[in-house]
Amino acid sequence: MARWLKGVKRVSTSSNDAECSKAVRAENTTITDPDDNATTSSSTVSKTEKRKHDESYIGFGFVDSNSSPLCTLCNKLLPNSSMAPAKLRRHLKTVHSESKNKNKEFFVRNKEELLESQKSMMHVTQTINEKATEASYLFSYRIAQAGEAHTVAENSIKPCVLDITKCMLDEKSAKHLPTVPLSNDIVSRRIHDLASYVKKELVTRL
Ligand SMILES: [Zn+2]
After folding, report:
1. How high is the pLDDT of residue 48?
2. Mean pLDDT score, 96-118
3. How far apart are CA 175 and CA 170, in angstroms?
4. How far is the CA of 204 from the centre of ligand 1 (A)?
5. Beta carbons of 69 and 81 less than 8 angstroms apart
6. Interior angle at CA 75, CA 71 and CA 77, nearest 5
7. Which stretches does the entry tag as region Disordered (predicted)?
8. Does residue 114 surpass a pLDDT of 90?
9. Which residue has the higher pLDDT, 10 or 88?
10. Position 46 pLDDT exceeds 60
11. Cα–Cα distance for residue pair 163/161, rounded to 1 Å
Protein backbone atom coordinates (compact mmCIF):
# COMPACT_ATOMS: atom_id res chain seq x y z
CA MET A 1 0.00 0.00 0.00
CA ALA A 2 2.71 2.44 1.04
CA ARG A 3 4.69 1.52 -2.06
CA TRP A 4 1.67 2.03 -4.24
CA LEU A 5 1.04 5.43 -2.70
CA LYS A 6 4.64 6.41 -3.25
CA GLY A 7 4.35 5.43 -6.88
CA VAL A 8 1.20 7.51 -7.32
CA LYS A 9 2.82 10.47 -5.65
CA ARG A 10 5.83 10.25 -7.90
CA VAL A 11 3.68 10.04 -11.01
CA SER A 12 1.42 12.87 -9.98
CA THR A 13 4.15 15.32 -9.07
CA SER A 14 7.33 14.82 -10.99
CA SER A 15 6.30 13.21 -14.26
CA ASN A 16 3.71 15.82 -15.11
CA ASP A 17 6.13 18.65 -14.58
CA ALA A 18 8.93 16.85 -16.32
CA GLU A 19 6.73 16.06 -19.29
CA CYS A 20 5.51 19.61 -19.44
CA SER A 21 8.94 21.16 -19.39
CA LYS A 22 10.16 18.58 -21.88
CA ALA A 23 7.37 19.57 -24.25
CA VAL A 24 8.14 23.24 -23.81
CA ARG A 25 11.82 22.61 -24.40
CA ALA A 26 11.07 20.59 -27.51
CA GLU A 27 8.86 23.35 -28.83
CA ASN A 28 11.55 25.92 -28.20
CA THR A 29 14.18 23.93 -29.99
CA THR A 30 12.05 23.15 -33.00
CA ILE A 31 11.19 26.76 -33.62
CA THR A 32 14.57 28.27 -32.96
CA ASP A 33 15.33 30.55 -35.75
CA PRO A 34 18.72 30.69 -37.40
CA ASP A 35 18.40 34.46 -37.64
CA ASP A 36 17.74 34.87 -33.92
CA ASN A 37 21.30 35.99 -33.28
CA ALA A 38 21.14 38.49 -36.06
CA THR A 39 17.88 39.93 -34.74
CA THR A 40 19.10 40.34 -31.18
CA SER A 41 22.24 42.12 -32.26
CA SER A 42 20.30 44.52 -34.46
CA SER A 43 17.62 45.17 -31.84
CA THR A 44 19.71 47.92 -30.28
CA VAL A 45 19.66 49.81 -33.55
CA SER A 46 15.88 49.55 -33.92
CA LYS A 47 15.23 50.92 -30.45
CA THR A 48 14.93 54.39 -31.83
CA GLU A 49 12.68 53.61 -34.77
CA LYS A 50 10.06 50.87 -34.98
CA ARG A 51 9.68 48.91 -38.15
CA LYS A 52 6.20 49.00 -39.64
CA HIS A 53 4.17 46.07 -40.88
CA ASP A 54 3.22 45.87 -44.51
CA GLU A 55 0.22 43.98 -45.89
CA SER A 56 2.48 42.27 -48.41
CA TYR A 57 4.28 40.38 -45.59
CA ILE A 58 1.44 37.87 -45.59
CA GLY A 59 3.20 36.61 -48.73
CA PHE A 60 5.91 35.28 -46.38
CA GLY A 61 3.27 33.96 -43.98
CA PHE A 62 3.51 36.84 -41.50
CA VAL A 63 0.82 39.00 -39.92
CA ASP A 64 1.15 41.95 -37.56
CA SER A 65 0.76 41.34 -33.84
CA ASN A 66 1.29 44.47 -31.73
CA SER A 67 3.96 45.73 -34.15
CA SER A 68 5.78 42.40 -34.20
CA PRO A 69 5.73 39.89 -37.05
CA LEU A 70 3.81 36.73 -36.15
CA CYS A 71 4.42 33.62 -38.25
CA THR A 72 1.07 32.06 -39.19
CA LEU A 73 2.74 28.69 -39.79
CA CYS A 74 4.44 28.12 -36.43
CA ASN A 75 2.85 30.90 -34.30
CA LYS A 76 6.28 32.27 -33.50
CA LEU A 77 6.45 35.95 -32.66
CA LEU A 78 9.62 37.53 -34.02
CA PRO A 79 10.97 40.80 -32.63
CA ASN A 80 10.04 44.05 -34.30
CA SER A 81 13.57 44.26 -35.71
CA SER A 82 12.73 41.25 -37.90
CA MET A 83 9.94 43.17 -39.61
CA ALA A 84 11.76 43.28 -42.94
CA PRO A 85 11.08 41.28 -46.11
CA ALA A 86 14.55 39.71 -46.15
CA LYS A 87 14.30 38.42 -42.57
CA LEU A 88 10.74 37.18 -42.97
CA ARG A 89 11.68 35.42 -46.20
CA ARG A 90 14.64 33.82 -44.43
CA HIS A 91 12.37 32.48 -41.67
CA LEU A 92 9.99 31.06 -44.28
CA LYS A 93 12.80 29.45 -46.29
CA THR A 94 14.72 27.96 -43.38
CA VAL A 95 11.98 27.00 -40.94
CA HIS A 96 9.16 26.22 -43.39
CA SER A 97 11.01 25.16 -46.52
CA GLU A 98 8.02 22.99 -47.50
CA SER A 99 5.85 26.13 -47.81
CA LYS A 100 8.33 28.52 -49.39
CA ASN A 101 6.74 28.27 -52.84
CA LYS A 102 3.12 28.65 -51.70
CA ASN A 103 1.10 31.54 -53.05
CA LYS A 104 -0.42 34.42 -51.11
CA GLU A 105 -3.88 32.78 -50.98
CA PHE A 106 -2.40 29.85 -49.06
CA PHE A 107 -1.07 32.16 -46.36
CA VAL A 108 -4.27 34.21 -46.23
CA ARG A 109 -6.23 31.01 -45.65
CA ASN A 110 -3.71 29.97 -43.06
CA LYS A 111 -4.05 33.34 -41.32
CA GLU A 112 -7.84 32.99 -41.16
CA GLU A 113 -7.52 29.52 -39.66
CA LEU A 114 -5.07 30.87 -37.08
CA LEU A 115 -7.41 33.72 -36.10
CA GLU A 116 -10.29 31.28 -35.80
CA SER A 117 -8.33 28.94 -33.55
CA GLN A 118 -7.11 31.87 -31.42
CA LYS A 119 -10.71 33.00 -30.97
CA SER A 120 -11.91 29.58 -29.84
CA MET A 121 -8.84 29.18 -27.61
CA MET A 122 -9.59 32.50 -25.92
CA HIS A 123 -13.18 31.43 -25.38
CA VAL A 124 -12.07 28.16 -23.77
CA THR A 125 -9.55 29.94 -21.51
CA GLN A 126 -12.13 32.51 -20.51
CA THR A 127 -14.71 29.91 -19.53
CA ILE A 128 -12.09 27.89 -17.64
CA ASN A 129 -11.05 31.03 -15.73
CA GLU A 130 -14.64 31.90 -14.90
CA LYS A 131 -15.35 28.37 -13.73
CA ALA A 132 -12.17 28.31 -11.65
CA THR A 133 -13.15 31.55 -9.91
CA GLU A 134 -16.66 30.27 -9.26
CA ALA A 135 -15.27 27.01 -7.85
CA SER A 136 -12.88 28.98 -5.67
CA TYR A 137 -15.80 30.98 -4.18
CA LEU A 138 -17.95 27.87 -3.60
CA PHE A 139 -15.00 26.16 -1.96
CA SER A 140 -14.30 29.14 0.30
CA TYR A 141 -17.99 29.37 1.23
CA ARG A 142 -17.96 25.76 2.44
CA ILE A 143 -14.78 26.31 4.43
CA ALA A 144 -16.34 29.35 6.10
CA GLN A 145 -19.52 27.39 6.88
CA ALA A 146 -17.51 24.57 8.42
CA GLY A 147 -15.34 27.00 10.35
CA GLU A 148 -12.20 25.29 9.04
CA ALA A 149 -8.74 26.84 8.84
CA HIS A 150 -8.13 28.63 5.53
CA THR A 151 -5.07 26.52 4.88
CA VAL A 152 -7.12 23.32 4.74
CA ALA A 153 -8.03 23.90 1.08
CA GLU A 154 -4.49 23.98 -0.22
CA ASN A 155 -2.99 21.49 2.20
CA SER A 156 -5.45 18.65 2.13
CA ILE A 157 -8.67 19.21 0.20
CA LYS A 158 -7.07 20.15 -3.10
CA PRO A 159 -4.76 17.10 -3.23
CA CYS A 160 -7.72 14.87 -2.29
CA VAL A 161 -9.93 16.32 -5.02
CA LEU A 162 -7.06 15.87 -7.47
CA ASP A 163 -6.73 12.19 -6.55
CA ILE A 164 -10.48 11.59 -6.72
CA THR A 165 -10.71 13.26 -10.13
CA LYS A 166 -7.80 11.19 -11.46
CA CYS A 167 -9.40 7.97 -10.24
CA MET A 168 -13.01 8.65 -11.14
CA LEU A 169 -12.58 10.74 -14.32
CA ASP A 170 -9.21 11.04 -16.04
CA GLU A 171 -5.83 12.79 -16.07
CA LYS A 172 -7.10 15.34 -18.57
CA SER A 173 -9.88 16.54 -16.24
CA ALA A 174 -7.46 16.61 -13.32
CA LYS A 175 -5.19 18.98 -15.24
CA HIS A 176 -7.85 21.72 -14.97
CA LEU A 177 -7.93 21.55 -11.18
CA PRO A 178 -4.70 23.41 -10.39
CA THR A 179 -6.23 26.47 -12.11
CA VAL A 180 -8.69 26.80 -9.21
CA PRO A 181 -7.14 29.39 -6.86
CA LEU A 182 -7.27 27.98 -3.33
CA SER A 183 -4.29 29.38 -1.46
CA ASN A 184 -4.57 30.53 2.13
CA ASP A 185 -4.70 34.22 1.10
CA ILE A 186 -7.22 33.66 -1.67
CA VAL A 187 -9.58 31.70 0.59
CA SER A 188 -9.55 34.39 3.25
CA ARG A 189 -10.08 37.10 0.63
CA ARG A 190 -13.03 35.15 -0.85
CA ILE A 191 -14.60 34.71 2.57
CA HIS A 192 -14.15 38.41 3.22
CA ASP A 193 -15.79 39.19 -0.16
CA LEU A 194 -18.72 36.89 0.58
CA ALA A 195 -19.21 38.38 4.06
CA SER A 196 -19.16 41.96 2.80
CA TYR A 197 -21.59 41.02 0.01
CA VAL A 198 -24.00 39.52 2.55
CA LYS A 199 -23.64 42.60 4.75
CA LYS A 200 -24.32 44.93 1.80
CA GLU A 201 -27.41 42.92 0.80
CA LEU A 202 -28.69 43.04 4.35
CA VAL A 203 -28.18 46.79 4.66
CA THR A 204 -29.98 47.53 1.37
CA ARG A 205 -32.99 45.51 2.55
CA LEU A 206 -33.31 47.38 5.85
ZN1 LIG B 1 7.27 30.09 -38.66
Report:
1. 61
2. 87
3. 9
4. 57
5. no
6. 65
7. 16-50
8. no
9. 88
10. no
11. 5
* β-pair partners for 68: 65
Taking a C-beta distance cutoff of 8 angstroms, is the pair 106, 92 a contact?
no
> From the CA of 60, how far away is ligand 1's center (Å)?
9
Q: What mean pLDDT do residues 114-118 have?
A: 82
Ligand 1: distance of its center to the CA of 38 in Å? 16
What residues are neighbours of ligand 1 (ion), with CB under 5 Å?
A: 71, 73-74, 76, 95
Containing H/E element for 187? helix 184-205
Q: How far is the CA of 36 from the centre of ligand 1 (A)?
A: 12
Average pLDDT, the chain: 78
Contact 128, 179 (CB under 8 A): yes
Centre of ligand 1 from the C-alpha of residue 104, in Å: 15
The whole-angstrom separation of Cα 150 and Cα 141 is 11
Q: Is the pLDDT of residue 100 over 90?
A: no
Please name the helix (run of DSSP H) or strand (run of DSSP E) that holds residue 204, with its range, or none: helix 184-205
Give the pLDDT band (50/70/90) at residue 29. very low
The pairing of strands 62-65 and 68-71 is: antiparallel
CA distance 180 to 148: 19
Distance 191 CA to ligand 1 centre (A): 47
pTM: 0.45
User: Where does 67-157 have alpha helices with state H?
Assistant: 85-95, 104-146, 152
